[in-house]
């Protein structure tokens, strides 16, 4: 009698296990046949039963079935915003149970890459609709799925900035830097956001210093750093840094251009003029040097003109014409610099506007009208 009962018990055990394994197999078959609703019902049963809940195959197919429902014209309605997270958890569970080299774990990376694309597409759709919180949520999930990919983090920073969540955006830029995505644009954006949030000078200068380690020739980062040196009465330090950099790289036109900018800020216009000319010698295509030389000459003409404009009538009759002629020489001197700057950057609106002003001052109406058309 005892032997019969034992046999019955064993038979019952085999029957139950077989039924549950059959649930996984049925889920796989239904998935293959495209009946994803039935496949889902089967696989969810398998994830709860003690005989199959710890099987890598169970969790892998759970992830696959849910994933293939996304965007499906029939079964897509069975998914929701949490579905991608369910899929990710299923694939992570697969690797946990199967080990990195298991039969099903080996298939997870490809599936995760597919999931990354699906979630990123959802994020972009929210982004295009300017639903910033939802877009950011999806970008963060995409980053969680593919931690090495920088695209989702970068666009999360853009979305946070668009949503005026500047501190959040700074956090995403910091994440990019940790990931090794240390482009000049990342440092530039972080600096601008720090300035918008009124971060301490020390914090901004730290970002600028780190950026310049990666991009020592960045004109923007150098100029911003100089602003803070000047603001904190450290102009001599700034000049010393520039001179050291120039000594190490004497053919770098950008360094001379930045030094000229610093000299301008120190009201040493003659010194700035000479350094800008050195920048052009070192780099005949240096836009900043040409543009700034044009501005310096133009401003000299404006200063002389303003002196004439302030004269009373009697004084103007005696000296006004001579001053206007002197101003015209400065305007004429500025012209080749602005024209060269325009040649280097034809789309720069400030240069075009300055050319309109110079041509007008010189009485070249036709040239002024021709160049002003580029502003429209």
Strand and helix map with partners:
Elements: H1 2-33, H2 36-48, H3 56-69, H4 83-98, H5 108-128, H6 132-145, H7 151-162, H8 166-178, H9 184-196, H10 201-214, H11 219-231, H12 235-248, H13 253-265, H14 269-282, H15 287-309, H16 313-344, H17 349-361, H18 365-372
Question: What distinguishing features does this structure have?
Answer:
mainly alpha, 376 residues, single chain, Serine Threonine Protein Phosphatase 5, Tetratricopeptide repeat, disordered N terminus
Structural notes for this entry:
The chain is mostly helical and 376 residues long. The protein has a domain at 286-376: Serine Threonine Protein Phosphatase 5, Tetratricopeptide repeat. Helix content is 78%, strand content 0%. The protein has helices at 2-33, 36-48, 56-69, 83-98, 108-128, 132-145, 151-162, 166-178, 184-196, 201-214, 219-231, 235-248, 253-265, 269-282, 287-309, 313-344, 349-361, 365-372. Mean pLDDT is 89; it is low at 1-20.
């Amino acid at each position: 009698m005892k032997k019969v009962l034992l046999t019955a018990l064993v038979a019952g055990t085999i029957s139950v296990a077989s039924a549950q394994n059959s649930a996984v197999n049925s889920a796989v078959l239904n998935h293959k046949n495209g009946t994803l609703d039935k496949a889902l019902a089967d696989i969810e049963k398998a994830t709860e039963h003690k005989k199959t809940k710890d099987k890598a195959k169970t969790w892998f197919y759970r992830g696959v079935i849910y994933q293939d429902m996304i965007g499906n014209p029939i079964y897509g309605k069975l998914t929701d915003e949490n579905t991608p997270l369910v899929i990710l958890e299923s694939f992570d569970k697969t690797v946990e149970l199967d080990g990195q080299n298991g039969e099903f774990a080996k298939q997870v990376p490809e599936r995760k890459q597919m999931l990354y694309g699906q979630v990123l597409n959802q994020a972009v759709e929210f982004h295009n609709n300017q639903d910033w919180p939802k877009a950011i949520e999806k970008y963060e999930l995409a980053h969680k799925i593919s931690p090495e990919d920088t695209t989702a983090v970068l666009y999360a920073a853009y979305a946070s900035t668009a949503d005026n969540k500047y501190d959040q955006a700074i956090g995403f830029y910091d994440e990019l830097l940790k990931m090794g995505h240390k482009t000049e644009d990342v440092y530039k954006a972080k600096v601008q956001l720090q300035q918008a949030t009124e971060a301490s000078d020390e914090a901004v200068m730290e970002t600028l210093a780190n950026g310049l380690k990666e991009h020592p020739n960045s004109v923007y980062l150098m100029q911003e750093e100089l602003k803070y040196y000047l603001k904190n009465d450290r102009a001599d330090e700034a000049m010393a840094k520039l001179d050291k950099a120039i000594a190490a790289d004497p053919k770098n036109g950008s360094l001379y251009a930045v030094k000229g900018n610093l000299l301008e800020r120190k009201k040493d216009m003659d010194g700035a003029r000479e350094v800008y000319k050195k920048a052009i010698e070192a780099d005949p295509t240096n836009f900043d040097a040409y543009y700034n030389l044009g501005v310096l000459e133009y401003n000299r003409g404006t200063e002389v003109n303003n002196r004439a404009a302030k004269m009373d009538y009697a004084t103007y009759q005696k000296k006004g014409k001579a001053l206007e002629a002197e101003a015209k020489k400065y305007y004429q001197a500025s012209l080749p610099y602005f024209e060269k700057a325009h040649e280097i950057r034809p789309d720069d609106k400030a240069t075009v506007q300055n050319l309109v002003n110079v041509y007008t001052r010189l009485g070249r109406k036709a040239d002024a009208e021709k160049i002003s058309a580029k502003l429209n």
